[in-house]
Amino acid sequence: MVNDTSVPLSSPIMATYSRFPVTLVKGKGSYVWDDQGKQYLDFTSGIATCNLGHVPDAVKEKLEEQLQDLWHCTNLYHIPNQEKLAALLAANSCGDQVFFCNSGAEANEAAIKLARRYANKVKGSGSSEVVTFQQSFHGRTLATLTATGQEKIQQGFSPLMPGFSYLPFNDEEALEELTTRKPAAVLLELVQGEGGVIPANPEWVKKLAEICKDNGILLMVDEIQTGIGRTGTLFAYEQYGIEPDVISLAKGLGSGFPIGAIIAKEEAAKGFEPGSHGSTFGGNPLATAAGLATVTHILETNLLKQVNEVVTYLDSQLEMLKEKYEFIKNIRGKGLLKGLLVETNALDIVQKAIANNLLILTAGPNVVRILPPLTVTKEEINEFIEALEKTFQGIEKGE
Q1: Which of 136, 155, 260, 383 has its Cβ near the most Cβ atoms within 10 Å?
Q2: How many structural domains comprise the chain?
């Protein structure tokens, strides 16, 4: 019954999130405001999603224009923004063709399906195995949580999907297994975000790429958190001297508007043909308007140069904190994806930072994750350091 209140609930929303006691209602640039009017410095960027800051003008204008024309169109017809964004992504990556979806999990799901279908229908190898790495994170669908190399993510969802196996991250000797098993594909993050902000070793990545190439294994790079400028280049793989066969994207691609994508080289893209995969909302006019505006702005401005300049400053300030506070054991990450390895409870730091008008994240029990927008200024970094140090001082005093 509509008005049945016999089972009282604290909220009509399912309890899939442990929410912080903050209700955000407005954002602009590096700042957000709650429903009480309190301002926060947001160094989460919606978990590496609002790469141009909140409500960036360049994206807002294009979305407002598109809202006047067409919101939705089935993929049975051509969508101009989709064609333009696909061309832009292909021209600025090692890939050739693009499939659009709505999220990072959907992008990795598409990559997994593409790898299996390429192996079965194009190569005729019959291999459907996808190898990922321990402590990885690839999504919450049944296939992508199975691909995720963390048992805590998989608990309660048995039976998991067959066809996945895991190797230790950054372990060169373990890569030799690929030469005998010859899986359909390898899927990896170049910085394990949820797994602790751990970058891949460059020499390890090069060896992995060589093994994949020599053995006909698709190399698929999950750039959902690292892509669209987050690490200082448009894609993180550019810093490793490799060319993946498939790249998965989401998060920063739409400046907060839901969009995901995979970019594939022409050969790998042969795995899909009409009817083999699809998405009702994927690549719709609004989502691709946001994506096109976001990527165009990054490419046509000096934003990536600015990112690399501000990263140098951020690194120096974090090193200063590390020298001052003994419980900071290491600083990890790439570009504006940073992690502080701490001896204390990372969640405690995140919760206490809220009282100091600062929003940050965890990446496991002992890592504080820092994700400012790419547009962050040195002045905002100074504000961040001041708030974080105030938080640290409170923790040392037992407050």
Answers
A1: 260
A2: 1
